[in-house]
Amino acid sequence: MGSATNEIDIDRPADDVWKVVRDFGGLAAWMPGIDSCRVEGDDRILEMMGMELTETLLRLDDDARTLVYGIAKSPMPIEHHEATITITPVDDRTSHVTYTVDVVPDSMTDVMSSAYAGALQSLKSRLEVVANP
Fold it and tell me: Which pTM does this prediction carry?
C-alpha cells in the first residue's frame, strides 16, 4: 500500500477552513479539475477529465475536524483508497491542514499525492482571498 501526506498552513481560523472542507458535496468549489460533484446519500459522484468517480464518506468528525472518504468506483486501476483531511488550529488566525492518502496499487500514490497537493494550494488561495480582499 502506498501512503502520502500533504500539508499546508492557511491564514484562516480552523473553524472557517472546516466549514468548507466538511461540505462533502462542495469539493468542486476548491479542488482543481472537478467539473461537477453531486451527492447521493453517503456518496459523491465526481466528473473530471471525462471520467466519473464515486467516493464514499467514511467518517465526519466535527470535534476533531476530520473527514475520511474512500473511492468506491473509479475507471482508474484502484483497489483500495482512503483519504483523510484534518484541520488543526495553529493559533486563533491560522490553520494547519493535513491531507493523507493510503492507496493500492502503489503506482497510484504519486497521482493522488499530486492531486491533493494541488487541492490544498487551491483551498489556501480560495480561503485567503476571501479573508483578505
Answer: 0.94
What CATH code is carried by the domain that includes residue 51?
3.30.530.20
- Long-range contacts of 109-114, Cβ-Cβ distance < 8 Å, separation of 24 or more: 109/2, 109/3, 109/4, 110/4, 111/76, 112/4, 112/81, 112/83, 113/4, 113/6
Distance CA 128, CA 38 (A): 26
Reading the chain (133 residues) residue by residue, the pLDDT tens digits are 999 999 999 999 999 999 999 999 999 999 999 999 999 999 999 999 899 999 999 999 999 999 999 999 999 999 999 999 999 999 999 999 999 999 999 999 999 999 999 999 999 999 998 655 5
Residues 123, 129, 133, CA angle at the centre, nearest 5°?
165
> How many domains is the chain built from?
1
- CB crowding 100-119: b at 16 or more within 10 Å, else e: bbbbeeeebbeebbebbeeb
Residue 96, domain extent:
2-131
Q: Which amino acid makes up residue 82?
A: E
